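Quick illustration for those who missed Monday's session on complexes.
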Amino acid sequence: MTTQPPDAPATRLDLTPVEAAHQASFLDFVEAEIAPYAGQFEASASVPPELVRGLAEQGYLASFVPEKAGGAGHPMIVHGLLQAALAGGSASVQSLSTVHGMVAVAVLRWGSGELKERFLAPLARGALLGAFALTEPGAGSDAQAIETTAVADGDSFLLTGQKRWVSFGQIADLFLVFARGDDGPTAFLVPWDAEGLTITRSPLTLGLRAGMLADLDLQGCRVARENLVGRAGFGLSHVAASALDLGRYSVAWASLGIAEVAFAATVKHASERRQRGVALASHQLVQRRLTDASTLLDAARLLCLRAGVRREAREPGAIADTLTAKYFASRAARQIADHAVQLHGAEGLSDEHPVQRYFRDARVMEIIEGSSEVLEILIAEHALAEHRAARGPEIT
Amino acid sequence: MDERARIRAHLARFSRDEAWLASDDLFAGGVLDSMMAVELVAFLEKAFSITLDDADLELANFRSVAGMLGLVERKRAR
Ligand SMILES: Cc1cc2nc3c(=O)[nH]c(=O)nc-3n(C[C@H](O)[C@H](O)[C@H](O)COP(=O)(O)OP(=O)(O)OC[C@H]3O[C@@H](n4cnc5c(N)ncnc54)[C@H](O)[C@@H]3O)c2cc1C
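Prediction with flavin-adenine dinucleotide bound:
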């Protein structure tokens, strides 16, 4: 074993044996419980309750919550590997882990002692399912445009407005809802059965078809003051931003997971399928696609790993690394899945083959948790900031 | 580098304008947008080995270099 010099940069190219062992057990679970049924989940537009319970029992929901707070205490890379494994089986199922994790991290990071006491362990155990309600009919990429209002009323707030496209809103127990109050945007934990809250199904989407999306109609929905997360006015800048940061990290790894299974299917098919007397993989035009896919996959993997290493080290730069990983991996997943569909021919378009699902799910990854365009804006801002920082010694 | 200089060096990522760096409302004028706020939190936590929580979410703690210095000092005293 080589010894790292003490000032060696904290990055690496591969998994540790412990991480690899976690990955193997995640993949075993996915192979047994998720992948064979992913098509059925889509057909029924739902994830069965037994599977949700199974995920919870394995500690796979909000797996990053520290053990002392009731979670599995997975380090960030292990959490990422879990997202990749789940998404390789079913990106819809993985999206439950994304949004549930976003609610858990909001409570972990910014919840009061009392909120943590009440909600963190049940969220970590999956006894309560969380959903993230930010998007509105008039506010998508521009979260600052939310119009849902929060009006103080004695010991409560009354929330009024509409939320759209809330993943797993159909089965969530607890919604993290963002609303505008006197002090600015504020985050609230709203139980599913709160007075004044009506939950309906959203239309089915191209991908993540088993994501059980819901629209929320809040009409003077009463929420106890102690359910406010963080402080009034800090709902978007700190609570949503922390949740979205984790959401992007999860989606980056989920995209990697889709890219991995799409690539594996492609290599298998190109090796087995024969045209003009030889395997598809022997044709050089096919090899070009394989090269493109394999290069994209390698790069996506390294960017996810870099984001994970830096998150574990609590580096401030991990936030920008996560943006880059999500941006790149989601695009790579779509491109790799596109190669997969193309090389599978008609089979790749048939609903009996998973590659068309990989393609549809990968497409969604470019829109959720910050669309590619939104990330292009943020990554450019970060790149400019780095440039400014590198211009010379600090100014005092 | 002292604490003040470290905070200023971090902020210089967004602008090196002296008037802005010395201002008492860094969020005014749109140089720092609210989405950069979590990065500021991550920087303060890492640079000064502190952990912020909901009780620290006061605008005064983040709005100026002096506010951040005060926050760091209080967190360390705890
Ligand atoms: C399957 C699925 C699950 C979802 N789950 C959730 C959830 O759990 N919770 C939740 O709150 N929301 C959820 N959403 C909503 C999702 O977060 C939004 O769709 C996303 O933020 C984009 O917003 P929008 O759809 O309103 O598109 P818009 O914001 O209207 O954007 C439309 C297009 O314009 C581009 N665009 C926007 N602004 C700019 C700009 N400044 N410059 C250049 N281009 C720009 C966008 O990139 C996009 O391509 C989900 C969506 C889907 C499809």
